[in-house]
Amino acid sequence: MIWDPDSLAPPPEDQLEQIEASIQLHSKDFRVQENYRFAHLWDRNRGLPGWRKVPARRWIQAHVKILHKDNERGMVYLVPNFGQRRLEAGRLWMIRHGMPVRIIILKPRRIGFSTYVEGLAFEHCVRGENKHAQVIAHRKDISRKVLAMMKGMVRHLQRLDGTKWDLAIDGSRHEIRIGEPIHSTIDTDSAEVEEPGHGDTSTFLHLTETSRWKDAERKAKGLLSTVAKYPGTEIYNESTANGDTGWYRNLFWAAWNAQNDGYVHESGNVAIFVAWWEHHEYRWSQQQGRGEYLPGYLPQDLMERIRDTLTPDEEALIERFGLDFDQLWWRRQTCAQDLGGDWDEFMEQYPADPDEAFKASGRPFFNLDRIRLLSRALPDPVMTGTLIDMDNTQPIIPIRPSDRSNRLVQRSPRKL
After folding, report:
1. Least buried of 97, 105, 139, 348, by fewest C-beta within 10 Å?
2. How many CB atoms within 10 Å of residue 285?
3. CB within 8 Å of 316: residues ≥ 6 apart
4. Residue ranges with strand state E in 194-335
5. CA-CA distance, 52 to 63, in Å (whole number)?
6. What is the DSSP letter of 200?
7. Which domains occur in the chain, in start order?
8. How do residues 274-292 score in pLDDT, each as one tens digit?
């Protein structure tokens, strides 16, 4: 449901007059005065009662505009989709538990995670004083696109009546500076440089596509250390998968396995994953069908064609996740048209579950479809555990039982 800004009580006229009088004392520059007007309304600490308490998500969808991915639709409000709402739910959970926000995201392509996090970074800085957000992209061209998106948010920042704010905000090739009394900064940089970031203390950090960074662990640790471990700070580490090894992969699995066991990992991260089939746009009826058909209701001849040509992997997807033919036909066409029929590439870019994402992106020797079919026929393991001794000096390698290990013992060892 979209937030109704009319639910906010308008400020009394005498209060507005007092605010305006105090603003005139601060500056004669119109744009600086706009900054003060904005802060008196929306600042999270000193804004008007009720107004300052409007949550980030609701404020973003009422004020922030982005360029729609279908350029013909122009600028649209940033209203969160399903995946973005799942991210926001994880964020709110951490805030309500008094924790600094630390979220690691494994994503399919074009869900909009990066866009929403940029919206959060913008809201974090423009509604708070002396905030510093850093966005580190994996490539320089992506870094420039991020900065252009943020500048677009500035240019199209909306009042509740639909007119635009004209705030005193300056920019350069790498940053946006919000003037008095807000004094916040948004920096962008690329992981292609040897030492990304600007070294200053940050209150908000967004790392994108870290699985594809060169020397990712060293660079990321340097950036993570710039953010204090206090409530009110936020770090987002989001990426597609890129092989079944590496710093990002290990960090994601540690957080994912921990929360599946009911606790937050010692890294402080909450893991977020959205499968391709959970995204409402990833249906033939919504893309190739141009919205001319209701979701799930395809032409009869197309339904029969899909039913007669189902593969074992598609049957497994129907069984595991309840997929319909509308989703499966989108899957087939996307793989054929965008990825040249490379199913390993599809599973990397559009994973159905986290395990598929990492294993497919690692380009395994064995066929993943066959492995999944065989794994479903396996009995439950008798134990999960961690190998204690890996130097092969003992005839039997001992195993320490652990529910959080990915090493499975299918049957107990027997003497020969």
Report:
1. 97
2. 20
3. 372, 373, 376
4. 204-208, 234-239, 270-273
5. 14
6. S
7. 54-274 (3.40.50.300), 279-376 (no CATH), 379-416 (no CATH)
8. 999 999 999 998 887 776 7
| pTM for this entry | 0.85
Tokens of 170: 């300056």
- pLDDT tens sequence across 89-144: 999 999 999 999 999 999 999 899 999 999 999 999 999 999 999 999 999 999 99
Name the token pair of 105. 């995201």
Tokens of residue 218, six digits: 């060293």
What are the backbone angles phi and psi of residue 200, rounded to the nearest 5°?
Answer: -75, 160
